[in-house]
Known about the structure:
The chain is an alpha/beta fold. It has helices at 17-28, 72-82, 96-101, 103-124, 158-177, 199-211, 232-243, 261-271, 301-307, 315-328, 334-340; strands at residues 8-12, 32-37, 62-66, 86-89, 129-135, 181-186, 189-190, 218-220, 226-227, 230-231, 250-253, 259-260, 281-283. It has two domains: 8-190 and 228-253, 3-Layer(aba) Sandwich (Rossmann fold), CATH 3.40.50.720; 199-226 and 258-296 and 315-340, UDP-galactose 4-epimerase, domain 1, CATH 3.90.25.
Amino acid sequence: MSIETNKIALITGVTGQDGSYLTELLLSKGYIVHGLIRRASTFNTERIEPVYQDPHALHRNLFLHYGDLSDASNLNQLIKNIKPDEIYNLGAQSHVKVSFEIPEYTANVDALGTLRLLDAVRESGVNSKIYQAGSSEMFGDVLEKPQKETTPFNPVSPYAASKVFSHHLCKIYRDGYGMFICNGILFNHESPRRGKTFVTRKITTGIANILSGKQDKIYLGNLDAKRDWGYAKEYVEAMWLMLQQEKPGDYVVATGETHSIKEFLEEAFGLLKISDWQKYVGVDPKYYRPVEVDYLLGDYSKAKKELGWEPKVKFKDLVKIMLDEDLKSVGLSIDKYLKKNE
Ligand code: NAP
Ligand code: G4F
C-alpha cells in the first residue's frame, strides 16, 4: 500500500461497481473519501463492505452521506461542508435498456444531476477538480471506427443523450468558468462486481446457476452486438490519473479489442469445455432495445500517451476472472469443474 496524499475526495455512485473500486484505490493512496449514498429500504452498501468503517470508530477515512443527484440543496451542502479536492461523478441510472423505460428519471439524474453538481461546486467557490463518468455509448450509431476523443457523438438512447448533455456541459463549465473538469469516455468495463443485469455478469452468473442446478437456461437479447470490454479495477486508475494532470482534458479509456455477445458466450462456456452452449441459451426479444448500438471499439492512444495508462486485462482474462468468481459462489471453480468432468 502506497500512501501518497492526504487529499479529500467525494464520490457520487460510491456504492456502484466503479465507486467501490475507486474508493479502495483512493483509500490506498491515503485519501479521505466521502461517498454519496442513496437511502434504500435494503442495504445497498454491499460492494463497499470490505472498506466500510463503523461511524463510531476513532480514526476514519471513509465517510458516507445520504444524498441524491436529483437533490440540489443536498449537493450544495455537501460540497460546502466537505470542500473536496477531487470529485468523481459516477452516480447514474446506468442501464441503457432501462433508460428507454424511465427516460425522464434517467435524464434527471444523468444529465441534470451533473448540472446540479457543477453548479454546486461553482457557487461554493471550492476549487474541486471534477471527473465526469462519460460513456462510449455516446458514440451510439458510430460515425467512425475505432472511436476516439474526436469522433462525433451520435447517441441512440435516453441514457446516451443524457451523458452527451453532461459531456458538453462539463466542457462549457471548463471553458466558461475555468474549472478543472475531465470527461472520461469509458468503454464497457466489467468485473465480478458488475450488476447482474448487464450482459457479461448475466452470462457468468447464469452459467454458475446452471452448473449448480438453479437455472436451466440464460435468456438474452441481441447476441450480435460488439463491445470493447475491459476490467473495471483498471479503469478507475485512469479516472484518478486524469485528475492528477496539469491541465484538464477528455480521454477515451478502452482495450482496443471488440467482441460480440456470442463470442463472450463461446469463451465462457469454452473455459468449461462446453461446446454445445446454444442448448443453455435462449433468445427473448424482450431484451432487445428500441435502437441498438451495434459496434464499439475504442482507441485509447491519448490516454496511453498523456496518462501513461494501458489495459492489462483483456477479453479472455476478463471472462475467466468473472466466471471463476461466480463459480466460487456456488462452491465451484473452472479447475474443479474440469477435474470433475474429466
Ligand atoms: P453502477 O454499478 O450502476 O453504479 C451506479 C451508482 O450510481 C450506484 O452507486 C447507484 O446507487 C448510484 N446512483 C443511481 N442513481 C443515483 C441518484 N439518483 N443519485 C445518486 N446516486 C445514484 O454503475 P458503474 O458501472 O459503476 O458505472 C459508474 C458510472 O460510469 C456511471 O455513471 C455509468 O453511467 C458510467 N459508465 C459506466 C461504464 C461501464 O461499463 N461500467 C462505462 C461508461 C460509463 P445504488 O447503489 O443505490 O443503486
Ligand atoms: O451489458 P449491457 O447492458 O451494456 P451496454 O448497454 O453496452 O451499457 C453499458 O456500457 C456502457 C458503455 O458503453 C455504459 F455507459 C453503460 O452504463 C453500461 O455500463 O449490454 C451490452 C450489449 C448490448 O448490445 C445489449 O443489447 O449486450 C446486449 N445484450 C444482449 N442480451 C444484453 C442482453 N444486454 C443486457 N443488459 N441484457 C441482456 O439480456
